[in-house]
């Protein structure tokens, strides 16, 4: 098996159409991330189908299933959909399935000359792309560039082990096997293999001379070779063209040298959003340089956000500091980052705390952040799975209920963001600012015309308020988009708002006409899976 022949796409195989949305166009969108295998079953399949996440096996979700649920995604207010990688993944034997599971996430790329039949046919993928674009929504395709996958042990001489081969032109297509023992050593990070999954051995004393019996390994593509780079770029371009994607999400960006990414961005010709897993602004800063990727995930703020709202003792100052640092350090500030609270790699936030008020506050953050909001499927349904694979729950168990408490909040936040863009043409280029508060645990974020009033005090908090001076016109009418409660600025244009039950408020100025939102704040004591009655969706904003 060779990278240049069977593993990567031949550009001539596909006749798809590329939808080249720009970074500026993507900034206006909000992204709904889904795991294709876990989001929706094909039409006619029972939603009572079992899916035991602990087995790490395929559960039957498909591209046709996603098509059937686009109404739901759009009803929540999202206008971009991020799907799992589409390339064919490796199939494994029973021993490896028992130790490592199956490739249901889509990241075990084995044969990129065809799509993953587990998700459907190529025509199904095309139909999904067409259905998304018919709704004026964008499609984001997840792709894997850094590595391929094999169930053959590294010492295998099998012809199907990609790392044992070189191309006909003599290029070494994969880096030699080595482990990443020091993530501060960038050479190791870029040239060694990411950790294998589910490796099992037998025989040998204390592992000595043991025989590897199962596992999945990830041969590291040698992007130091110019010929290999040209093959990878052609493959990536073909994948985008075949799917009709408007943008791509790329994982493991830090595992490839930074000089690779400008050429990649130019080759694919669509919006590029990179995952650079690190919690420091200093590490991410070079990846925002001009000509690099269009955008990156804001991991430093993600870590600070979760820590700040996980408990009433969370450090809000650390969150403020990391945002301020990133705004100054990143090229273009935080405007071309993706803001998120959850994803497929980490435990659900509701797994960290069962406190409704804390979860509600944390969920507001991506929508008032300077970057592009991303919501991981099931978050709006109150899913609370722990570390992978527990956080890859089957979405069909929720019955796609749009009236869940969190789902209604998400709908309101999406509507508020769109309203802010319509009201202030500079909304997307106005940096968020923090207004100092005297109440402990209170956080006020101004991004005109939005004002987010957050707190990590929790539902048992007693008293306190948010205060902001001279933000509005004298006596201007304001509306909290999460409750539809109206209040007014004072004669000097300031506000003083009481904290009620530790719940957040997101305010816009305006009257009541235009968008459907919840009319009442949920009673304190509801849990994260509570449902809001449909007839309460009556509050409308201008």
TrEMBL record:
Disulfide pattern = 51-59, 178-192
- UniProt cofactor(s): Ca(2+)
| Listed InterPro entries | A-amylase-like (IPR013777), A_amylase_C_dom (IPR015340), GH (IPR017853), GH13_cat_dom (IPR006047), Glyco_hydro_b (IPR013780)
The entry's keywords:
Calcium, Carbohydrate metabolism, Disulfide bond, Glycoprotein, Glycosidase, Hydrolase, Metal-binding, Signal
Q: What EC identifiers does the entry list?
A: 3.2.1.1
* Protein origin, superkingdom: Eukaryota
A GO molecular function annotation here is: calcium ion binding
This enzyme catalyses: Endohydrolysis of (1->4)-alpha-D-glucosidic linkages in polysaccharides containing three or more (1->4)-alpha-linked D-glucose units
Q: Does the keyword Nucleotide-binding apply?
A: no
Q: Gene3D superfamilies, alphabetically?
A: Glycosidases, Golgi alpha-mannosidase II
**What positions are marked as the site Transition state stabilizer?**
345
Entry keyword annotation includes Mitochondrion: no
Enumerate the Pfam families for this protein: A_amylase_dom_C, Alpha-amylase
What's any GO biological process attached to this entry?
carbohydrate catabolic process
Question: Domain Glycosyl hydrolase family 13 catalytic spans what residues?
Answer: 33-417
Q: Which residues bind substrate?
A: 108, 249, 345
Please state the span of the N-terminal signal peptide per the UniProt entry. 1-23
PANTHER family in UniProt: ALPHA-AMYLASE 1, ALPHA-AMYLASE FAMILY MEMBER
- UniProt family annotation: Belongs to the glycosyl hydrolase 13 family.
Name of this protein: alpha-amylase
Q: What is the lineage of its organism?
A: Eukaryota, Fungi, Dikarya, Basidiomycota, Agaricomycotina
